[in-house]
Amino acid sequence: MKIVTVIPGDGIGPEVVESALRVLEALGTDLAPDVLDHVNAGTYRREGTALSEADFARIAASSATLLGAVGDPSLEHTDYVRSVLLRLRLGFDLYANYRPVRLWHDRLSPLRDAAHRGIDCAIVRENTEGLYSGVGGAVHPSSPWETAIDADVSTHHGVSRILDFAFSVARHRVCMVDKANAVRSGGSLWQRCWEAAAGRHPGVAASHLYIDAAAMRLVTDPGSFEVIVTNNSYGDILSDLAAALAGGIGLAPSASLNGTTGFGLFEPVHGTAPDIAGTGTANPLGAILSAALLLEHLGYDDEARAVRLAVGGAVAAGRVTPDLGGTLGTADATAAVLAAL
Ligand code: NAD
Ligand code: IPM
Ligand code: MN
């Protein structure tokens, strides 16, 4: 039996996690969920912390974690999201954020040009450094002279390992995205690590784009990408953009992985969607496809394939939530996947 820790979180998090758990349950594997349903905004408001050392140990003892989403409008200016999400990513050194994007059905594309709608790529996002490192601070706070500095940290170790990860998941081509024309030290480091990494992987075509041009190319010719590797914040932004090109953030999955320990955190790319939380209309497919990534990661390849086939069937039949043009609520959209399974 393998334990999967589950953090439903806030807003639509618990709603979509319930769907993913129903799909996992229907597969009849030996995976056993250990649900940490107190890791949420309510606990943070009451106790000033939401993820305790005991929770951390419970997660460390499990095979993988499935997370819905964390965040709450009343806690936007606190440390809450960082203290859960970034604590997990940094604490388990989950340096590779793998975000596959695929157009499941032509009608989901927002692009006018039918010949250039196809997208089937993966964003590989560095997940432990960059602007998320927490290095910096403010001087003269709350005065007209307040100056805030958040360092954009890139290490040779961190950049080299994410580039190698990107090559390891690519079949044909990797495009590295940075802003080396403007960002001095980090730009130079990424460029040199990139040349070295490309040299280590001669069988895969290596190309480069600046972030501004990459954003444009994603819209004008999304099919030209296979694997895009980039830093933490560019990866955050490009993954929402790419998700929108494939029908929306509601069906985008992600995996945060440590390539050495093998530990993984699996979560939809979207957040807690306070605007639709509680309405029963959240799209569960991002969470369900994240569960498919988890299955694959733990070696349940047939089950992962079955889940993706079922999602594809439900999408093709239009048995989906309003964000994908359907009329179903979360429960019925989940039932459609379960029926196709
Ligand atoms: P969001 O992803 O929650 O919502 C953006 C838009 O997409 C909203 O209009 C929302 O209704 C829609 N949307 C998102 N998921 C959907 C789904 N499954 N089905 C249908 N529509 C969906 O982003 P936001 O509004 O910027 O953030 C809200 C909160 O979530 C914030 O507190 C933020 O910090 C947090 N957040 C958490 C995570 C995470 O836990 N991994 C990720 C992103 C944002
Ligand atoms: C994501 C989210 C997080 C991020 C936020 C909530 C800190 O947007 O998982 O993409 O920026 O990594
Ligand atoms: Mn994001």
From TrEMBL:
It comes from the Bacteria. It comes from Streptomyces fodineus. One of its GO terms (molecular function) is metal ion binding. SMART domains: Iso_dh (SM01329). Residues 3-337 form the Isopropylmalate dehydrogenase-like domain. This is Dehydrogenase. The keyword Metal-binding applies. Keywords: Manganese, Metal-binding, NAD, Oxidoreductase. The keyword Metal-binding applies.
